[in-house]
UniProtKB/TrEMBL annotation:
Pfam families: SpoIID. This is SpoIID/LytB domain-containing protein. Residues 1-22 form the signal peptide. NCBIfam families: SpoIID_LytB. GO terms for molecular function: peptidoglycan binding. One of its GO terms (biological process) is sporulation resulting in formation of a cellular spore. It comes from the Bacteria. The keyword Electron transport does not apply. Keywords: Signal. Residues 83-160 form the SPOR domain. The keyword Transmembrane does not apply.
Length: 725
């Protein structure tokens, strides 16, 4: 290993505060815990892996500490043997006869190219720099080209060899070999602390294996620590803050992991980190509530008879889970049967009556709501706008418009007088002065017979889409401007220039004695309904007022934040379904696809498919899921089953209905109407949340979704014979 000679103590890796034997002792104490360990394959293999070292690290061969590394910020682990004969590539820069001059250049280039390490090398005629290493020749060539572009015309690509499969590279070292023949491990000097990789911190050991010329990273850690990362990633506590649901998730995840231990042995790990196994993102999503769920169920799993179950679970089941064989053909586990999520009725409350604003009659619900949000107080009138009322509106919107002009036009405001007044607003004046060229006022108005005095304003309104081409022709109209037209235009400007309303979402937990009890994540809040003046809901992007809405437990409501009226309660209507998994964003959904997009997707899963002419459902399960689908195509008909149905269609679940559109007898478009998200087998995760909110214990949730199982302490994949000594 080569280090900078002028910083021999700071960067020499052997000058570390913790001797190897002390580091080994600390690691052995941690590794010697009497727990189940799991190896998780994380991310995709690559030729270079980037990590962060803010604390001392230990380098492991197996469980033997062979090196220690001081903190160094970002660093890379590279594969050295992906090229034939173990070549690595460097960028060589002919520099100067004096070493100190080259070291100055070294410092400069390290600042410009922190992704590379630069090594001072001696030559017959002086000193030079080498930057790298690079595992691909094209990467080294790209770095050389960049240096040539910066004026280093003699930069060239050179090669060297290595005997070890992995190197560590950062901006302080040119490189050093990680001295293990097969698998290298990195762990924090305090093994209870995480190590950071690709922006995420991982507890335990990160092990590196070279396979097929690429580096695969494996996170090895205790099972219960692993679950701290899985549970909140699979069922987020901030969105679904029910402890019993999280405990059910912890037991299901633990059971699944133990059942599937060793599934990927050939790749060197037990389980993957994606939803294909269980979603795991290190410490990224750890949360006190899910930590509590893991701790309170430590070691608890599910058995069917004497055998650990394969505890499949799905995000949202659309009201009914399915028999495993309908989704995974060939499987028939007796505990994975269709189960209903229509199992709990929720308490409901009718809120006190609140009359909508009077202006709704003249303006309609949406415009009246916009006026309310932006503190505009429109009168209940559909007549022509008067001068005094126009001035009042301008004053009410001063908090957005800034200094407002004084209206000096006719008593009944005309279209022209309205726009001539708004042209005096500070924002309009400033933009017209600094961002418009005279030609900008001519080009969009060519061929139009418009008063030249209004042309700059017309160009401004067109640029920011406040009016369309047809409306421009009426800017000089002397016709009276109707009240509702004026309000709509004023609010359009307010919406364009002012703040957007920000809504904080809460879950309703109770209503009693005129008080609304709310929850946001793990935080609780109360709202006195006497302080609420209006109820708002949103439907198809249109605001609507409600006078006396009905709420159920776990319904979602929103409170506004920022410089807006605080006496509004926004209610999320949820009348779509009655199952306990209706609190998912995907309890009901619609997906639309052109036949071109459909075929591009389907060809990834259906071999030889070309020229789709139709899509037909051939069979369904009792739960309603499609179990066999046929693509009618020019290349011949193709049938798909199981998970390939939703994968080939690119939809969330197999619980679907198809609405095809045809032209000349061929499919041109497909609308898919569906429910649920996931494979639909085992426990419904959002359903577990809905049941927990109704008082179901975690074991009751589990025995509902998994037929005939026992919730018990883990004693092995198969229970030992109770009759044996």
């Amino acid at each position: 290993m080569t280090v900078r000679r002028f910083l021999p103590v700071l960067f020499c890796w052997v000058a570390v505060a913790t001797p190897l034997f002390a580091a080994q002792s600390q690691y052995d104490a941690w590794r010697g815990q009497s727990v189940t360990w799991i190896r998780v394959g994380i991310k995709d293999p690559d030729t270079v892996q980037t990590l962060r070292s803010d604390s001392p690290l230990l380098v492991l061969e197996g469980d033997r500490v062979v090196q220690t590394i001081k903190p160094g910020g970002l660093f890379r682990v590279t594969s050295a043997r992906i090229q034939r004969k173990g070549y690595r590539y460097w960028v060589h820069i002919h520099a100067a006869p004096k070493r100190q001059d080259v070291e100055v250049l070294q410092t400069k280039l390290e600042g410009l190219h922190p992704e590379s390490a630069f090594k001072v090398v001696k030559q017959k005629d002086g000193y030079a720099l080498r930057g790298g290493p690079y595992v691909k020749k094209q990467d080294a060539a790209a770095a050389r080209d960049a240096l040539v572009g910066e004026g280093y015309a003699k930069a060239e690509v050179v090669t060297s060899k290595t005997r070890y499969p992995l190197q560590w590279v950062n901006r302080f070292y040119d490189k050093f070999d990680l001295r293990a023949e097969k698998e290298v491990g990195l762990v924090h000097a305090d093994p209870n602390q995480p190590i950071r990789y690709a922006g995420t911190a991982y507890r335990g050991v990160l092990r590196f294996r070279v396979s097929g010329g690429k580096i695969r990273i494996i996170n090895e850690l205790p099972m219960e620590v692993y679950l701290r990362g899985v549970v909140p990633t699979e069922l987020g506590p901030n969105v679904f803050p029910e402890l019993e649901a999280l405990k059910a998730q912890a037991v299901a995840a633990r059971t699944y992991a133990l059942k599937n231990m060793g599934r990927f042995n050939r790749r060197g790990y037990d389980i993957c980190d994606t939803p294909a196994c269980q979603a795991y993102e290190g410490t990224l999503n750890e949360h006190p509530l899910s930590d509590q769920a893991v701790a309170e169920t430590e070691g608890v799993v599910m058995y069917h008879g004497d055998t650990l179950i394969d505890a499949l679970y799905t995000s949202t089941c659309g009201g009914l889970t399915d028999d495993v064989g309908n989704v995974f053909p060939g499987r028939n586990e007796p505990y994975l049967k269709s189960k209903s999520s229509y199992v709990a009725a929720y308490p409901s409350w009718t809120l006190p009556k609140k009359d909508p604003p009077k202006a709704v009659a003249a303006l309609g619900g949406h415009l009246a709501a916009e006026a309310l949000l932006y503190r505009l107080q429109p009168i209940d009138s559909d007549a022509a706008l008067g001068a005094k009322q126009f001035q009042k509106y301008l004053e009410q919107l001063r908090w957005i418009y800034g200094d407002v002009p004084t209206y000096r036009g006719p008593e009944h405001v005309t279209v022209r007088a309205f726009w001539e007044t708004l042209a005096q607003l500070p924002a309009v004046v400033s933009v017209m002065k600094h961002q418009f060229h005279p030609a900008d006022s001519v080009r969009p108005l060519l061929g139009r017979d418009l008063d030249p005095g209004l042309q700059p304003l017309a160009a401004f309104l067109l640029r920011f889409e406040f009016v369309n081409n047809d409306e421009v022709a009426r800017l000089d109209s002397e016709a009276p401007l109707l009240h509702n037209q004026a309000v709509a235009l004023l609010l359009q400007l307010a919406h364009a220039w002012g703040p957007e309303p920000e809504w904080d979402r809460y879950t309703v937990t109770d209503v009693k004695n005129g008080v609304l009890y709310l929850q946001r994540g793990t935080r609780s809040k109360t709202l006195a309904l006497a302080n609420v003046r209006y109820y708002l809901s949103e439907h198809a992007e249109e605001w609507r007022f409600q006078s006396q809405p009905k709420l159920e437990k776990l319904d979602r409501v929103y409170l506004i934040d920022g410089p807006f009226p605080q006496n509004i309660l926004r209610i999320q209507e949820n009348y779509k379904v009655a199952s306990v998994d209706r609190f998912s964003a995907y309890d009901v959904w619609v997906d639309k696809k052109s036949v071109e997009a459909l075929e591009k997707r389907a060809r990834r899963y259906v071999r030889g498919l070309r020229g789709i002419r139709d899509v037909k459902v051939l069979s369904r399960s009792a739960a309603g899921r499609v179990t066999e689908l046929e693509f009618v195509a020019d290349s011949g008909n193709r049938r798909v089953k199981g998970l390939n149905i939703r994968w080939s269609l690119g939809v969330r679940d197999n619980l679907i209905d198809l609405v095809p559109s045809y032209r000349n007898g061929r499919l041109v478009h497909l609308t898919v109407m569906g429910r649920g998200w996931g494979h639909g087998v085992g426990m419904s995760q959002v359903g577990a949340y809905g049941m927990a909110a109704q008082g179901w214990r975690f074991d009751q949730i589990l025995t509902h979704y998994y037929d005939g199982v026992e919730v018990a302490a883990y004693v092995g994949k198969t229970k030992p014979d109770s009759g044996s000594p």
